[in-house]
Amino acid sequence: MFERGTSVISDLTIDPDSGHAFVNAHVPVILHGKVTYSAAIAIPTTELTAELLAQGLPVGWLVGLTDRKGIIAGRSRDSDKHVGRPASPQLRAAVLKSDVGTLETITREGIANLTAFSRSPRTGYTTSIGVPQAELIGPLRMKLASLISTFALVFGLALLLARYMSKRIANSVQALIKPAIALGQGTPIAFDRLHLAEANEVAAAIGRAAELLTQRDRALRAQQEALQQFHFFTENANDILLVLEEAGQIRYANRMASRRLGYGNAELLGMEIFQIDKAATPKLFGRLFEYSRSNQITPFEREYTCNDGSVFPVEINATVLEHSGEWLMYVAPRDISERVQAEQAVRWAATHDAMTGLANRACLRECLLTLLSAEHCILDSGALLYIDLDRFKPVNDVYGHEVGDRVLLEVSQRIQALMRQTDLLARVGGDEFIALLGYRDDGGRHAADTARSLIDAVSAPIKLGKIEVKLSASIGISRFPEHGDSADVLIHAADLAMLQAKHDGRNGYGFYAPEMDKQAQFAIQVERRLQQALDHGALALHFQPIVNLESGAVDGVEALVRLEDGIEPQLGPAAFIPVAEMCGLIAPLGEWVALEACRQQGRWRDAGVHLQVSVNVSALQFQRADFMPQIRKLIAVSGINPHWLVVELTETAVMENMAEAVQILSELKKIGIRIALDDFGTGYSSLSVLPNLPIDKLKIDQSFVRRIDTDHASRAVIDAVIALANSLELELVAEGIETESALRYLRERGCQLGQGYYFSRPLPQVALEEWVEKRNAQVADDNRCSS
């Protein structure tokens, strides 16, 4: 058909599903003088039979139509029984010998016929007409002539039928050409009503096909755009993207994979992932692949090896999907080099001291736990050396923190030089270190020897340019497992031993002893009592008068806290104040004292008694970020006039951070509060910075005052402090005056104010008011007598 451009009629075809018989007419569609494709039209055999019956042949005559294989395609009688079955053997044999002829046949109904046949040279189909022989016994010649005429007529009718059918088919096919062209070009399709029902069905099918093809074309375009976008994003992604086969071969690798791994794309394709992920094996990969078919893979970390042998860490997100019947693993390894480096830096910072590079407390505990665990313990015993530098704070105060840091660095290097490779040195505080020593049991001799060497190393002068610093160290030693089997217990024991070494005179060492725990237990009990007193109001204020040494009049009072919880033994300030400072309760305790003292001052003011109230502020309170807001709240709540409030600070509190301290003191001065530097002479303040402090008073520590009569050095210190205060125009308060001679000495040298048992011990409110009244009366009498 494609070569000749002519129509083709098929042999009879039986639909296996419906059982219907039909003949296919294939009509060529010619475009630009060339057969482009064909249109097929199925003609049911019922229509062929109808055409045969429509010829009006005599009753009893049999008209049949057979295909090229001799199969009955149409029959004028009982077609439903015989269509699709072979024609008689005689007819088939005759057709094979000649295209036209006659023969005697016996029909399937058993009737003897004289049959004439003719085969179409164009279609190959055979038309046969059978006449019963009984009708031929009469006038043979007349019948024969009539038969020949009839045969010619029938044959002509057959040709007419063929031409009619061909014309109908051709017209319908031609009508389908334009829609078919439109279908190929993707343009809108329009149909005219066709003569053949089958052609109309084909037209409708073409329309449906056009719609489906349009939808498919849109989907294909969308899919193509999506594929282009996917390709663009994968090729320009910042992360590696791989597609792996089940055996581990790389099916796809994006541009970043080639760039990061150092391979060409062609090299990567077909390469096994095991060449890149050295930790992976075919067995492990196979298990992962199989597991991933039905489970989500949790991201995991590996190291990828580049072409040049370098490695880098990756976090792998992978999933396994089925595509076109094949399972593939989609892998997105993200380079986490920067994250790993950052995590390592964070871990290092979490376990090391930034300034010295030594291990910190957390690292020490981890190492100690490992050493103490039974599965790692290979030594009989070991020791912790808790090292605290004596008199280090004055270095910071006098020379500044930069010099102090350089001193600490030098000390840490000296100590580290004495450590063995199996030892660990950690910095656990500003000037505190712990050395972890592992050794076989020798009764602590190695620990003692090491402690002596450390003391000698620290005691050697440290020269930093023109500055020379001399330090000493106090060392406490705990041994394991003798003194404990946990990190916290051993550190605590060494800490207690170090505190005892300081108490014994510093610049020495000592081993932990169980009785030290009694002191620690006492501190715990005191802390509990303090907390309960704060919670349940078991605290009270006592007031110690501050007297004008020249006139004898009462100038003010210092508020002092007392614990009145009714529990034996009773605790004085000397017992519970250090514990409060150690456990952090000093801040809420100080806030309570300040508030109650300010409220009491307000009540005295309302009663016409004018007394300045001094309150002590601890270093912990002073260094808190909310110190000034708390002071302002205190003034607002109590209603006190700030000019009647004196804040007493120790040298230590002020000198910790000089710049910040000056700022806070200036703010206190602005709102009218007066400031006293307490216990002056016992701290490490630099005289060069004292003129820059916005303070109003200096208080001479009672340890000097009490030794006025017996100690020349104490008198020298007092004289120097008085001279300093006078030169700076500061008021001077002497604490601890207990004798007439001490009072006379201080008054003669120009000390303005004083307090101590010579005047009065600290008194409760009512007793103080009575004392003040009597004192004022006595002063008034003395003044009258002197006048």
Strands in their spatial order, largest beta sheet: 21-22-23-24-25-26-27-28
Share of helical residues: 40-55%
CATH T-level topology of the largest domain: TIM Barrel
What's the CATH first level of the largest domain?
A: Alpha Beta
- How far is the N terminus from the C terminus? 153 Å
| Count of runs of 4 or more consecutive helical residues | 25
Low-confidence stretches at least 5 residues in length (pLDDT < 50)? Answer: 147-163
Using the alpha-carbon principal axes, give the shape: elongated
CATH superfamily of the largest domain: EAL domain
Instruction: Return the domain count.
Output: 4
The description of the largest β-sheet is: 8 strands, mixed, barrel
Strand content: 15-25%
For the CA atoms, what is the radius of gyration?
Answer: 58 Å
What is the architecture of the largest domain at the second tier of CATH?
Answer: Alpha-Beta Barrel
How many individual β-strands? 28
Q: Could you describe the 3D structure shown?
A:
It is a single chain. Helix 15 (515-536) packs across helix 16. The chain is elongated. The relative contact order is 0.04. It starts with 7 loop residues before the first strand and ends with a helix. It is α+β, with helices and mostly antiparallel strands and 787 residues long. It is built from 25 helices and 28 strands. An eight-stranded mixed beta barrel has the order 21-22-23-24-25-26-27-28, surrounded by five helices. Helix content is 45%, strand content 24%. The chain has four domains: 44-185, Beta-Lactamase; 237-340, PAS domain (Beta-Lactamase); 352-513, Reverse transcriptase/Diguanylate cyclase domain (Alpha-Beta Plaits, 2-Layer Sandwich); 523-786, EAL domain (TIM Barrel), CATH 3.20.20.450.
